[in-house]
Amino acid sequence: MPYQFNDLTEACHGEWRTYIEHSFVRQLGDGSLEPAAFKHYLKQDYLFLIQFARAFALAAYKSSTLADLRQAKDGLLAILDTELALHISYCEAWGISEQELNELPEARATLAYTRYVLDTGNRGDLLDLHVALSPCMVGYGEIANWLNSRAETMRGTDNPYDAWIAMYESDEFQQAMQAEIDWLNQRLADVSPARFQQLCRTFSDATRLEIDFWEMGLQLSN
Asked: What is the per-residue pLDDT for 219?
């Protein structure tokens, strides 16, 4: 049977569920997350987006087909032309200026995850890079869907983090998430069992680093 993205999440079930259902996520959903924790996360997520853009530039370099090259270009432009501007505006609504964002040091969790992704992409091929990115590219959409499935999740103006959930439940993000899953499914269908085990290790490592990113927010640590 050909491998699919779901096989990666099943092979790393414990880490994946810990990431999707993390305490940071639960508190964000019910509105109880400390604002200082969320602001710390927002600041570091801005720095993460910059490195994410570099990963798409690397994806362009690693692309061997015109379709993959165009996909990488679209991802890079989406971050540079749209997502970073939206993130800056969102941060400003939380009292975080663009100047402050530009002067931030990267937290250890930010450094660890983003450099792991770039190193994985440099050492491997385009599939290695996409698997390393997938906990973020797919995970945030799954987190929004999981939050919306919970009775404890508070939606509307009573939850200061409602706009964050809305961002990742949006049709635009959900379509991008599904497009990434479809791309991964096509590539995973052709891999051998030994290659799949390699990719599982990458997926597990990246997911654990995403868990650390949530922990960073809760602990307010560099």
From this structure: 87
